[in-house]
Amino acid sequence: MLSTLERISNNLNKWFTWIGGIALLTLTGIACANMLMRPIGSPLKGAYELVGFFGALVVALPLGYAQINRSHISVDILATRYSKRTKRVMNTISSVVCMVFFILVAWQTADYATAIWKRGETSETLRIIYHPFVYLVAFCCLLLSFVLLIDFLKSLIPGKGERER
Question: Of 16, 104, 115, which is closest to residue 66 (Cα–Cα)?
Fold first, then answer.
C-alpha cells in the first residue's frame, strides 16, 4: 500500500516538476523578449503580470519533488548527534507539523482563489482570470502535504523511514 502511494506521489511530482520547468522557460522567454523590446519602444504588454503568474508556478509546482529529494534547506546542527530512534521521532513530528501547516496553506489559498473567482477579478493589464493559477498553487501545497504524509508513514516503520536530512 505504501509503495503504491509512493509511486503515485513520485509520478505526480515528476510531472509537476516538468511543468514547472516549462513555466520557468516561458517566464525567461517573456522577460528576455520584454528586455529586448523595451529599447525599441514597444515592451511586451502585460509582461510583469505574466512573469508573476509563471513565477508562482515555478515556485509551487516542484515543491513535492523537492521534498522527495530532500532539496529544501535544513539545519541539522543538533540532529547529527541524535540516535537513529531520536531522528526517526523528530522526522515523524516534523512531517506531521509540516503536513498540517501545508494543508492549512492549501485551504486558505483555495479560499482566496474562490473569493477572487466570485468577485470576477482579472489581472490589470491583460484582463486574465487568475484564480486558476491560485488554485494550482493550493493544489501544489496539497501535493506537498501528500508527500509529507508518506514521509510520516515511512517514519513509523523502523529502518524504512530513516532518511538522512
Answer: 16
CA distance 59 to 20: 8
SS3 68: helix
Q: Is 126 helix (H, G, I), strand (E, B) or coil?
A: coil
**On the CB side of 14, how many CA atoms lie within 13 Å of its CA?**
6
Query: For the residues 16-22, what does the mean pLDDT come to?
Result: 96
pLDDT at 159: 61
What's the whole-model pTM score? Answer: 0.85
Chain centre distance of CA 27: 17
Helical axes 131-155 vs 47-60, angle rounded to 10°: 10
- Residues whose CB falls within 8 Å of the CB of residue 158, separated by 6 or more in sequence, listed in order: 88
User: Could you tell me how far CA 158 lies from the centroid of its own chain?
Assistant: 28
The three cell numbers locating residue 141? 501545497
pLDDT band, very low/low/confident/very high, at 1 (cuts 50, 70, 90): confident
Task: Find all residues with CB under 8 Å of 49, minimum gap 6, and list them.
Answer: 123, 124, 125, 126, 128
Q: Which of 57, 49, 52, 41 is nearest to 126 (CA)?
A: 49
